[in-house]
Write a structure and sequence with these properties.
single chain; mainly beta; ten-stranded antiparallel β-sheet; five-stranded antiparallel β-sheet
Length: 284
């Protein structure tokens, strides 16, 4: 995981607004793409979730927040940073793609960057995640604290990013599931009005996600009889068995596409949408 920090690249960014004042977390906008897997007795099922913090301002509960949307662009909650702490307010369940999810009708303390070594930051499957040590990562010439955890599953927090396993890592219960950050991009405005962007890519462990196609959007729904996909581009849909054999491939057109699934036997299938995402489809 420490090697992931060496993949940090930075470049300038302009034309930004609506910033919060706390740069220990993205205060303009951000996007996390996280690979997830779960074990259901028949094998490990890969999926993913994407959460996007929008460049907007929401006035609620006496504070200013940023909207948080899921991979389908659905507004699931909002997030804000204040004095080194990051809070999340969930309107509806944010699915992790592994059968788990999270929502909180009251502000939930997701990150606390004011903690010290030896402190418990959160619990994973009832097991405390304890800060083992604190180091530093250099971001645009500024040393930001980096928190290394011991516990059920190792974790790393970086000021300005959050967990290197994705935004929802503090509430992701592993047990028979796992999560891994595939890519992150956050935009910031510092106290001097200087804008910058922090980006991390980890494509080796997330080969089914191409971060170069993040501008493409897909809306997916399914029944036992068909699969419906709305897309803003022409693309391809491939259907795979759990064993990895491709059963069929379809060309998707811009707009709504309906794929009839009458010829599929009951079972678990993987749907590859171009190189952007992998979705699990279960037919009973």
């Amino acid at each position: 995981m420490k090697n992931l920090l060496t993949a940090i690249t930075l470049w300038s960014f302009c034309h930004l607004s609506n910033a919060q004042s706390d740069t220990l977390f993205p205060n303009i906008s951000a996007k996390w793409i996280v690979g997830a897997s779960s074990w259901d007795g028949s094998g490990s099922i890969s999926s993913f979730y994407k959460c996007t913090m929008l460049n907007d301002t929401i006035d609620t509960l006496g504070f200013f927040w940023h909207s948080m949307t899921d991979q389908f662009g659905i507004d699931r909650g909002c997030v804000r940073a204040d004095s080194g702490k990051v809070y999340y307010l969930g309107y509806s369940n944010f699915s992790f793609g592994t059968g788990g999810g999270f929502m909180s009708s009251i502000p939930y303390l997701m990150y606390d960057f004011t903690l010290n070594a030896g402190d418990t930051a959160y619990f994973d499957s009832s097991i405390p995640q304890i800060i083992d040590s604190i180091g530093y990562s250099n971001i645009l010439g500024v040393n930001r604290r980096t928190f290394y955890f011991s516990g059920f599953v190792p974790d790393i927090w970086v000021e300005g990013l959050g967990s290197t396993n994705g935004f929802f890592r503090p509430v992701f219960q592993h047990f028979e599931s796992s999560c891994n950050l595939c890519s992150f991009s956050g935009t910031y405005l510092d106290s001097l009005g200087t804008a910058y962007n922090l980006s991390i890519g980890n494509p080796i462990s997330c080969e089914y996600i191409s971060t170069q196609e993040e501008s493409n959007s897909y809306e997916y729904s399914a029944t036992q009889f068909n699969i419906t996909i709305k897309t803003n581009i022409e693309s391809a849909l491939s259907i795979f068995e759990v064993q990895g054999r491709m059963l069929n491939q379809f060309q998707l057109v811009q707009g709504e596409n309906v794929i009839v699934t009458d010829d599929l036997q009951p079972g678990i299938y993987f749907l590859n949408l171009g190189e952007m995402q992998t979705i699990t489809y279960i037919k009973y």
